[in-house]
Amino acid sequence: MPEEDIFTRLARSKFRSRFHLGPHERDYARAKGREVIAEHARGFIATRLAPEAPANDGRQTPMRGHPVFIAQHATACCCRGCLAKWHRIPQGQALSAGEQAYVAGLLMRWLDREMTRTEI
User: What phi and psi, each to the nearest 5 degrees, are found at residue 64?
Assistant: First the structure.
C-alpha cells in the first residue's frame, strides 16, 4: 500500500488524527537525534510488534512517553490487529524484515512530519 495513501486514510480517522507530539516528545527527539529515534523505532518493532504472537498484543504500546509510541498509534502500527486492519499485514506470523522496514519507515515519515509541524 503506498505511503501517501495510508497517510490520507489515517488523516480521515478521528482517533488516529488526534495524535501529535507534545513539547516533551519533541524535545526528546531533538536531543536524541533522528538516527537514535529510528534505532528506538526498529527496536520497539522487533521486540513488541514483530513476533508471531507478541506479549500483551493490543496493549503493548503505551499511549505516551516516547515519540515512537505516539507515532505507532498515529500510524496504526501499535499492535498486530491494527497492522492487519490498516496495513494488511496478517496476524499470526512473525513480521518479515521487509515488513519491519515498512513499519519503521512509516513511523519515521510521520515523526519527520510532526517535527516540522508548525501548529502546536
Answer: -155, 175
Domain hosting 77: range is: 3-116
* C-alpha 99 chain-centroid distance: 13
96-113: pLDDT as tens digits? 999 999 999 999 999 999
Q: Where are the alpha helices (DSSP H) in 12-118?
A: 23-32, 34-44, 67-74, 80-87, 97-116
Is the pTM higher than 0.90? yes
Q: Which amino acid is at 62?
A: P
Cell numbers standing for residue 11: 488523516
pLDDT tens per residue across span 21-34: 999 999 999 999 99
Instruction: Count up the domains in the chain and report the number.
Output: 1
